[in-house]
Amino acid sequence: MEVRRLRSTERGSPEWFSGAVLLAARPEGESLLLVRFAPGARTAWHAHPKGQVLYVTEGVGLAQSRGGWARLLLPGDVVVFAPGEEHWHGAFPDRFLVHLALQGGKNGLLGGEGAGGSLPGGPRGHPNFLEPSAKYPASRARAIMRSGV
Fold first, then answer.
1. Which residues contact 118 (CB under 8 A, 6 or more apart)?
2. Distance separating alpha carbons of residues 22 and 38, to the nearest angstrom
């Protein structure tokens, strides 16, 4: 048996994340990362040449692939992004999110798009903009909150 220690916990770079994000740095050469998002924090649009798998451990989040609708993420959900698939992921506006990320290869920011300050997808009215209340009505959000997720 071998035990590998995490090197440190680091703040996510503003180039890659908006809001408060903490990364549990993995041992050199490993492809597993523990990521903690404060409410409303998220990644920039990015892709992974060998794909990415997220395993949600705590909280409530959102994930979106370019051109698609954002999807609600709950504990136990597994999200699989195909190699090169453009996407973002992060915490629901008023909930924390923790996930494990397994990925291969170097990440790539897309089109010079940093994380910015608002949810990705363009301004309100843009076809890909996510208005969480439109996809997940207030009653659904309240049910999630009551469930203790």
1. none
2. 9
Give me the domain span that covers residue 119. 9-146
Residue whose C-alpha is closest to residue 97's, from 141, 146, 60: 60
Q: Which two tokens stand for residue 126?
A: 């843009």
Q: How many CA atoms lie within 13 A of 95 on its CB side?
A: 23
Residue carrying the six token digits 């008023």: 94
Q: Please state the pTM of the whole predicted model.
A: 0.71
Q: Are 64 and 121 in contact (CB under 8 A)?
A: yes
The pLDDT profile of the chain, 149 residues, written as one tens digit per residue, is 988 777 678 888 888 888 999 888 666 666 788 999 999 999 988 888 889 999 999 999 999 999 888 899 999 999 999 999 999 999 999 999 999 998 765 555 554 344 444 444 433 333 333 434 334 444 555 555 555 54
Lookup: tokens for 138: 């207030």
Measure the CA–CA gap between 45 and 66, rounded to whole angstroms.
Answer: 8
Say if 2 falls within a structural domain.
Answer: no
* Rounded-to-integer distance, Cα 137 and Cα 128, Å: 18
CATH number at residue 51: 2.60.120.10
